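Progress report, Aim 2. The chain analyzed during this reporting quarter is listed below.
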Amino acid sequence: MRQVGVYEIMARAVLNTPFVLPKDLQAQVRGLPADAREDVKLRVEDSIHQVLDQQVRPVECLAVARYALASRAGRAGNIDDAYTREATDRINAYGDERIAECVAQAAATDSTFAPYEPGEFNRAPRGMTLDIASSVTAPPVAPAAAAAGGGT
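Predicted C-alpha cells for the chain:
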C-alpha cells in the first residue's frame, strides 16, 4: 500500500504545483486591465493543467490498478483489515469511469488482470449493509471434485 500511496502523492504533487506566469508572458500582459490579466493567467494555467493531467494519468492508473489488486485479493481471501479497506476506499475515490479506464489498461498488458465490473469495489457505509443481488451466492466450501468424493 505504501508504493501505491507514492504514486498518488506524486500525481497530486504534480497537479497541485503552484503556477507562476513566465516573465515574458507577464511583460506581454502588463499593460492589460487587471481582469484581462487574470483571464490570461487562468487560460494559461488551465492549458498547463490539461497537459499535466495527461502526463499524470499513467501514474494514477498504476495506483488504481494496485488498489484494484489489493481490494480483489482482500475479497478473494475474505480479508477485511485496514489495508484492504483503504484500498477499496481509495479506488472508489477515482469513480467508475476512471477505474474502468485504468483496469482496462492493466488488463491490456496483463492477461491475468480481470476486467472491471461496475460496482465491484463498492462497500457499505459504516454501520450499513450493502444490498446483494439474490443471484449472488457464496463459493463452495470445498472444490466440487473433493465434495463428490473424487478428491484427495
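DSSP finds six helices and no strands in the chain. The chain has one domain: 2-123. These observations will guide the mutagenesis work planned for the next reporting period.
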